[in-house]
Every structure is written in structure tokens, then in C-alpha cells.
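queue> pop job 88
queue> type: inverse folding (structure -> sequence)
queue> payload:
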């Protein structure tokens, strides 16, 4: 029998109220008591709208990722060139407060890689989508004469993402924002190397 939530409005409230909590504490680090405190609802009310904690966590991840994508889209859409759009990603990620708790793709992927297949898949889909967006920008840049025609768009996109995500990880782990800035400057230089003069 398919689970049907009691109230879509309450379900949405629970997602919004717990999204930052899951992003900061992770799936394993978030208890039902934490969910009750964040929502001021009873366990029965929460589980009347979700089958279990896993479903709340997945919905919270989807919400966090949607919020991240919305903020990135605003930043990237403001630029008019492919290179400008790539640089907008760097400017966006240079803000340590981009989203409460940091990058949900990284947070979820690191925690769930060996422990929670459903969340790992969601994080993987987020990375694949991010890579697809960057590949598309690189193709547009090649077509517009901004980037060299021999650019390996898949390789550049993966390297671009790995450097950004690595910068976030190092910066957050060491609590040193200058590390993030330094690595993002290296990403900038990397993109300059594929640009036509």
C-alpha cells in the first residue's frame, strides 16, 4: 500500500524546518528528538507525513539541493558569457555562508557513501547534474570562440567540480576561509588556460 501523507502543508513545513539540521548534522547525527525540537511537532505528526526518518532526510536533501541550485542559477544567469558564468560559480562558492551547513551534495555524499544508498544516489545525481551544467557551459564557450576547440569538456568539468568541492572540504575542515579563496583562485587560473587570447 502506498504511503499517503496526512497533509502536504505539514509535510512541506517539516522539510523546511529540518533541512538545515540534516545538512549540518547528517542523517546519522539527526535523531527523531532533533526533528521534534526543530518542528515542534510530535513523532506521530512527523511520521504521519513521512514513512520514516530516511524519507524526511531524502526530502530535506532534495530541498537543500533545490535551494542551492536556485542561488547558483541567480548568480550564473547574471553573467553574459560562458567564461563569466563559470567565474560566477567561483564567486558563489567563495561565500562560506552559501547555504546553512555548507554544500549538501558534499555533506550527504561523504556521509552516505558507505552507509545510506538512497542518499548516496541523490548526492551522485547532484554531482552528475552539476557536471552536465558545466559541460554545457564549456560547449557554449567553445562555440562562441571563448574557449579552445580542443578542450576536453568532460575532463575540465570534472576537474572544475573536484577543485571546488575539495576547496570547500579543506576550508570547512580546517576552518580556514583563506584556503577556499586560494584554491578557487587556482580554479580561475585553470579556466584561463582553456581560454582563447
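queue> result:
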Amino acid at each position: 500500500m502506498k504511503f499517503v501523507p496526512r497533509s502536504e502543508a505539514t509535510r512541506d513545513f517539516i522539510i523546511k524546518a529540518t533541512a538545515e539540521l540534516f545538512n549540518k548534522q547528517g542523517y546519522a547525527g539527526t535523531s527523531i528528538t532533533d526533528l521534534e525540537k526543530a518542528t515542534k511537532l510530535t513523532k506521530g505528526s512527523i511520521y504521519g507525513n513521512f514513512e520514516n526518518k530516511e524519507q524526511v532526510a531524502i526530502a530535506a536533501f532534495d530541498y537543500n539541493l533545490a535551494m542551492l541550485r536556485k542561488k547558483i542559477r541567480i548568480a550564473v544567469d547574471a553573467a553574459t558569457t560562458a567564461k563569466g558564468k563559470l567565474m560566477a560559480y567561483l564567486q558563489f562558492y567563495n561565500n562560506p555562508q552559501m547555504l546553512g551547513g555548507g554544500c549538501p551534495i558534499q555533506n550527504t555524499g561523504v556521509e552516505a557513501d558507505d552507509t545510506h544508498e538512497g542518499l548516496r544516489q541523490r548526492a551522485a545525481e547532484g554531482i552528475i547534474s552539476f557536471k552536465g551544467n558545466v559541460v554545457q557551459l564549456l560547449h557554449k564557450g567553445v562555440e562562441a570562440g571563448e574557449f579552445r576547440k580542443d578542450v576536453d569538456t568532460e575532463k575540465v568539468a570534472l576537474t572544475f567540480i573536484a577543485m571546488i568541492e575539495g576547496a570547500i572540504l579543506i576550508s570547512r575542515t580546517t576552518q580556514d576561509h583563506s584556503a577556499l579563496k586560494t584554491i578557487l583562485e587556482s580554479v580561475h587560473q585553470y579556466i584561463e588556460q582553456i581560454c582563447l587570447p
